[in-house]
Amino acid sequence: MGKVKTIARRSFLIGSAAVLGGVAFGVWRAKTPYTNPLLKRLGEGEAALTPYVKIDASGVTLITPRADKGQGAYHVQAALIAEELDVTLEAVKIDPGPPDRAYWTQRSQLRQPSLTRLKRALCKTL
Q1: Is the pTM of this model over 0.70?
Q2: Separation of alpha carbons 7 and 73, rounded Å
Q3: Would you give the end-to-end CA distance of the chain in angstroms?
Q4: I need a surface site. Which of 1, 7, 12, 73 has the fewest CB within 10 A?
């Protein structure tokens, strides 16, 4: 049988510190919020409360940065937005959105507003 190799205390402490530092950095980076990329390009009478919903006088624009692979996700999301904001489905436009770092992650790290704020912004613009 082979001889079991032991780990020196100093090597264990250095390795543990490196792992802990990597975990701490990963948690910090995952919790760092991104800015809303739609706020940079807003015109007069437009409101962007989340990075995925922009409201203006012509209706609601839904930003969908990921590709629809034939399941009808664009239509379902547009129907949900139309239902919640009490607008017609024709008033909801689908846009792939601007290329921005906020859309690179799997889940959005931006603060999501309440539905009442969305409805208030829609009433102001229409």
Answers
A1: no
A2: 53
A3: 80
A4: 1
Distance between CA atoms of residues 49 and 112, nearest Å: 8
Segment 70-87 shows an average pLDDT of 88
| Lookup: tokens for 67 | 């590709």
Mean pLDDT of the chain: 80
What's the full length of the chain, in residues? 126
Q: Label residues 93-105 b or e (16+ Cβ within 10 Å = b).
A: eeeebeebebbee
Instruction: Give the residue from 66, 39, 67 showing the smallest Cα distance to 51.
Output: 39
Q: Where are the beta strands (DSSP E) in the chain?
A: 47-50, 53-56, 59-63, 92-95
β-pairing, 59-63 with 92-95?
Answer: parallel
Dihedral (Cα; 83, 124, 103, 89), 10-degree rounding: 30
Per residue in 35-53, pLDDT (tens digit) is 788 888 888 888 887 888 8
Closest CA to 110 of 12, 26, 36, 28: 36
Residue 71 identity (one-letter amino acid): Q
